[in-house]
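Q: what sequence does this backbone want?
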């Protein structure tokens, strides 16, 4: 099985190359694409289909950890804002997308959800994660998130 076929299990067993850091409620991972540099995803510790399937304490911790990933992105990437999305429409398990948004995006684009970007952004070779292009940014977010989480 390839790591992307079960992202949570591969984060648990250390084979997910996108893993940034284990948090209290899950696993912060770097986004497969980086057309918005610093894009991350928070995976839960165990597979559930929605946020509401978690017990209240776990749910609260997941949302807090999601915001802490956002804090790390803000400190490292200096975006104009951060968007948080929990959709689970395509991948039918809980996961939170954490998207930095930037002033350099087209003005009209800044007002729209990330999902309205052209589909090519999700498979563009130029923005697909590569250690060479994005490894330093991933490491900087990891260091900052570790500092925030460990406080």
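A:
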């Amino acid at each position: 099985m390839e790591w992307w076929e079960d992202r949570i299990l591969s984060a648990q067993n250390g084979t997910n190359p996108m893993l940034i850091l284990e948090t209290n409620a899950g696993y912060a991972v770097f986004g497969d694409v980086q057309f918005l540099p610093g894009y991350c995803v928070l995976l839960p510790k165990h597979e559930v289909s929605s946020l509401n399937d978690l017990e209240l304490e776990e749910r609260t911790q997941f949302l807090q950890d999601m915001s802490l990933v956002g804090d790390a992105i803000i400190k490292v990437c200096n975006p104009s804002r951060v968007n948080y999305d929990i959709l689970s429409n395509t991948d039918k398990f809980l996961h939170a997308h954490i998207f930095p948004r930037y002033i350099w995006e087209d003005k009209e684009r800044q007002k729209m959800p990330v999902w309205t970007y052209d589909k090519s952004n999700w498979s563009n070779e130029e923005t697909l994660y590569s250690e060479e292009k994005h490894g330093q940014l991933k490491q900087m977010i990891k260091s900052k998130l570790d500092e925030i989480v460990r406080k």
